[in-house]
Amino acid sequence: MSKKGLRHSKLNTMNDFKTSENKQSIDKELARRLYDTEEYKLANRIGIVLSMDHEVDTYNIITTMLNDNKQVFVPETDYLNKIMHFKSLLNLEDIGPDEKGINHVTEDTEITDNLDLLIVPGVVFNQLGYRIGYGGGYFDKFLSYNDQPTISLIYDFQLSDFEPEVHDQPVEKLIIVTTK
Predict the structure, then answer these.
(1) b (16+ CB within 10 A) / e for 14-35
(2) Would the annotation count 23 as a binding residue?
(3) Are 55 and 122 contacting, i.e. CB atoms less than 8 angstroms apart?
(4) What pLDDT is recorded for position 135?
(5) pLDDT digits 0-9 by tens, 24-41
(6) Which CATH number is 3-177's, of 3.90.1150.10, 3.40.50.10470, 3.40.50.970, 3.40.50.10420?
(7) pLDDT tens digits, one per residue of 117-136
(8) 159 is in an annotated binding site
(9) Is 87 labelled a binding residue?
(10) Nearest partner of 165 among 146, 145, 137, 138, judged by Cα
């Protein structure tokens, strides 16, 4: 199956799963496993997305990070130039939709590429950590120019065999929870 076909298929599965009675407990288990990693314990500056409802819930994770005195950074995307940096999130009340309807920080805070850990989102992953995202290439581009530990939190049904393309950047660690 093509990358586009895999992305479409897995997005449908993710959208179906978002109403599952198990999603909340599975998201909590993924978060618990993240907090147990050495990468999380050692990191001070952590990049993470503001999740959409079909993705692993990052809002509770961000709340825990802030309570753990971690510095939280979320994507700040320049769609015109197709680049992404990370903007400091001090409070979950300081977010709102950007020009594409994706939540971002609305306050004037630090923008950086200097992170101790990056929680990388995706739609499809293979066992080697390569991922298929939403097709913009923002994370692959960011990862090709920046070096920090990377972790993805994924549902077991997001795993699939596919051949990465030359520009694809792998995630170092996958935390996977079975959804059944």
Answers:
(1) beebeeeeebeebbeebbeebe
(2) no
(3) no
(4) 87
(5) 999 999 999 999 999 999
(6) 3.40.50.10420
(7) 999 999 999 999 999 999 88
(8) no
(9) no
(10) 137
pTM of the predicted protein model: 0.95
Residue 6 assigned to a binding site: yes
> Please, where are the H alpha helices in 18-146?
23-35, 38-42, 59-67, 138-145
101 is in an annotated binding site: no
5 is in an annotated binding site: yes
50 is in an annotated binding site: yes
Q: Are 107 and 132 in contact (CB under 8 A)?
A: no
Integer Cα distance of 150 and 87 in angstroms: 17
Q: Note whether 44 and 70 are within 8 A (CB).
A: yes
User: Residue 104 belongs to what H/E stretch?
Assistant: strand 103-105
Cα 27 to Cα 14: distance, rounded to the nearest angstrom: 13
Q: What parts of the chain have a pLDDT lower than 70?
A: none
The domain limits of the chain are 3-177
